[in-house]
Write a structure and sequence with these properties.
The protein has about 280 residues and is α/β, with parallel strands linked by helices. The protein has one domain: Rossmann fold (3-Layer(aba) Sandwich). It is built from eleven helices and eight strands. An eight-stranded mixed β-sheet has the order 1-2-4-3-5-6-7-8, sandwiched between helices. Helix 3 packs across helix 4.
Length: about 280
């Protein structure tokens, strides 16, 4: 299975590794310890080339750690510094079960899942599958709201990402161009952002994307019993902002925030606003 060489300079800070039952190593950043006083916050990153928990949430999770929360920031199998096998199906259901094992190993019985894009879909699926373990949900531009055949062809970001992955582009400028589609302002994509993601992309097997399958939850969102905070960037080029209204219509207890200042990375484009909004939601 592919992973960054031991002697390679890591593109992101190294946390620690959790050995899973299938002999995979899951890379995790962790601050604090689980307690009965506060739920554990679990940050679930998106699926773009080179993604990791740290690159998605480095402007967020330290804030919540400073406010006394136990924080887990995993890299999914296939991403970040975690193992990258070529012979598995990278479905949302697979990622849900890996997350369940991680929470069991960390003795987490009550969690707030904070998920962007694919991470939002995983958060929804986990909460629908194991509702007793989820205290609240925070999702930013989540996947899984509506069948992709109804909207994917309209999204300029996806139209750019498809050929980028299929042609296995590895040059820095093509990578920068792809990331520009993710955000509202090109200034968000600094050299540091590229440096944290491009080396990971170079190590990812195509199976990560070729076998990706995200369950669709539109008809089940009404079954969510926990409070949900949904944030969406008006300039999202990957998942249509109209899905925020579907979430608002179906989820029993939901607050929806739409910002004209953000694209697909709400938590990175407006980190201070995001952090305070989530902190208020946590109550």
């Amino acid at each position: 299975m592919s992973s960054l060489p031991e002697n390679a300079r890591s593109p992101i800070p190294v946390g620690h590794f959790v050995e899973l039952s299938q002999s995979y190593r899951l890379h995790v950043h962790e601050v604090g310890q689980a307690s009965a006083e506060k739920p554990t916050l679990v940050f679930l990153h998106g699926s773009g080339p080179g993604a990791s928990g740290y690159s998605n949430f480095h402007l967020n999770f330290p804030f919540f750690a400073e406010h006394g929360f136990h924080v887990l920031v995993p890299d999914y199998i296939g991403y970040g510094l975690s193992d990258k096998p070529e012979d598995i199906q990278y479905t949302s259901g697979f990622h849900v079960e890996v997350l369940r094992e991680l929470l069991q190993k960390k003795n987490v019985s009550r969690a707030v899942l904070v998920g962007n894009s694919l991470g939002g879909a995983i958060a929804f699926q986990y909460a629908l599958t194991y509702p007793d373990q989820v205290h609240k949900l925070v999702v930013m531009g989540p996947g899984g709201v509506e069948d992709h055949t109804l909207w994917a062809a309209q999204m300029t970001g996806l139209r750019c990402m498809g050929p980028f992955i299929q042609q296995r582009k590895t040059d820095r400028e093509s990578f920068r161009e792809l990331l520009h589609h993710i955000v509202a302002s090109p200034q968000t994509i600094t050299d540091a952002v590229i440096d944290s993601r491009l080396p990971v992309w170079l190590e990812q097997p195509l199976a990560v994307y070729a076998t990706m399958k995200v369950d669709v939850f539109a008809e089940r969102l009404a079954d969510l019993s926990m409070p949900v905070l949904c944030l969406w960037g008006q300039k999202d080029n990957f998942l249509p902002v109209r899905h925020a209204m579907i979430v608002a219509d179906l989820v029993k207890d939901v607050r929806v925030v739409i910002s004209s200042r953000s694209g697909h990375w709400f938590m990175l484009e407006e980190p201070d606003y995001f952090n305070q909004e989530v902190l208020t939601f946590l109550g």
